[in-house]
Design goal:
This is 8-amino-7-oxononanoate synthase. The protein is of the alpha/beta class. Helix content is 41%, strand content 17%. The protein contains 15 helices and 14 strands. It has a 7-stranded mixed β-sheet with strand order 4-10-9-8-7-5-6, sandwiched between helices. The protein starts with a helix and ends with a helix.
Length: 377
């Protein structure tokens, strides 16, 4: 009955790409495996170390779950407060809160982009954006990574045949830490009457004077009307959001299926997000710390990158083959450090890598151990 699934799993095993869930405990920047071994965790997206901070600050909730979809009875006064705080944080008319960042991305793109539209999507966009594009009824074209000339060319060729054109991109690409050329994309979008949708999942909490992301740091927030973010990375909690004009928020509430047909964000996640946004000073202190740490590590490793990317706490170490990346990750594991090997399909073929994720809770001694354990590249 399941021969086809077993055949596909066997193929993954032959190619060394079989994935498994490994039960672990996490305490701060320590990862504790099933044997009780304690490792320094360089694999988490908790860039500011807020997950533990929020656990001690978040108020006790009377109900863990939200009990229903927000459109039934799951939207509470605390959900409303969170949405208002996000809109204030992002300086937009409104914000919509989703159960996850993935739901926010896929649910926004699939709802807004419809038949007669065209989507131009960066080839290295996150899976949630890709799924949103596929679920929409719009025509779709994928452009080479961060290639603004290709976007301009596609717009020149296809704009007139479509009702609306959407340019969809991550702001910070999660597997290499590169920043999208948002200024240039905004110019092209303006020239061709296109609309940008930007996912700030890895920019929120890290970039910008008010740490709302790459759109802020590059001075283009007013030119990007739809910005998607997550509460589960730098902000240390769970959930996703869309910061947008009020009319877009109302449209999503009425048309975004992941929002309409999912139980609303849990009460515990709502409270932790509210607490995070009520501590801008703590966010700034931790952001400055992890960004300085990223610059230090890049300098010590001899990694050159634009100044706009130097503080981003995602540092890829290129390896090449899947087997070599897994072996390098295993050697670091044996040395007491968890640095995940990233393989296709998450990254392109032949571009397997180690992905270092820094946290404000790491320290100089931990970075020294990491440098000693990394392979030459």
């Amino acid at each position: 009955m399941w021969d086809d699934l077993n055949d596909r799993l066997d193929d993954l095993r032959r190619r060394g790409r079989m994935r498994r869930l490994h039960p672990r405990r996490i305490e701060g920047v320590d990862l504790i495996d099933q044997s009780g071994r304690r490792l320094i965790n360089f694999g988490s997206n908790d860039y500011l170390g807020l997950a533990s901070f929020l656990a001690s600050k978040t108020m006790r909730v009377d109900s863990v779950g939200a009990r229903a979809s927000g459109l039934v009875c799951g939207w509470t006064d605390r959900h409303q407060l969170l949405a208002e705080k996000i809109a204030e944080f992002e300086r937009t008319e409104a914000a919509v809160v989703f159960p996850s960042g993935f739901a926010a991305c896929s649910g926004t793109v699939s709802a807004l982009c419809r038949q007669g539209d065209l989507i131009l999507s960066d080839e290295l966009n996150h899976a949630s954006l890709i799924d949103g594009c596929r679920l929409s009824k719009a025509d779709r074209m994928v452009y080479p990574h961060r290639d603004v000339d290709s976007v301009a060319r596609l717009l020149s060729q296809h704009r007139k045949q479509h009702r609306r054109v959407w340019i969809v991109t991550d702001s910070v690409f999660s597997m290499d830490g590169h920043v999208a050329p948002l200024r240039e994309l905004c110019v092209v979008a303006s020239d061709h009457d296109a609309t940008l949708i930007v996912d700030e999942a890895h920019g929120t909490g890290i970039l910008g004077d008010r740490f709302s992301g790459a759109c802020e740091s590059l001075g283009v927030k007013d030119q990007v009307p739809i910005r998607i973010g997550t509460l589960s990375k730098a902000l240390g909690g769970q959930g996703g959001f869309v910061a947008c004009p009020r009319v877009v928020a109302e449209f999503l509430v009425n048309h975004s299926r992941p929002l309409i047909y999912s139980t609303a964000l849990s009460m515990s996640a709502v409270e932790s997000a509210i607490v995070a946004l009520e501590h801008p000073g703590e966010i700034r202190r931790r952001r400055d710390l992890v960004c300085a740490m990223s610059r230090q590590l890049r300098s010590q490793l001899g990694l050159a990158c634009p100044a706009s990317e130097s503080g981003i706490p995602i540092i890829p170490i290129p390896i090449g083959s899947d087997a070599d990346a897994v072996a390098a990750s295993q050697r670091l594991y044996e040395s007491g450090m968890f640095v995940p090997a990233i393989r296709p399909p998450t990254v392109p073929e032949g571009q397997a890598r180690l992905r270092i994720s820094l946290s404000a809770d790491h320290n100089t001694e931990m970075l020294g151990r990491l440098i000693e354990g990394l392979p030459s590249f």
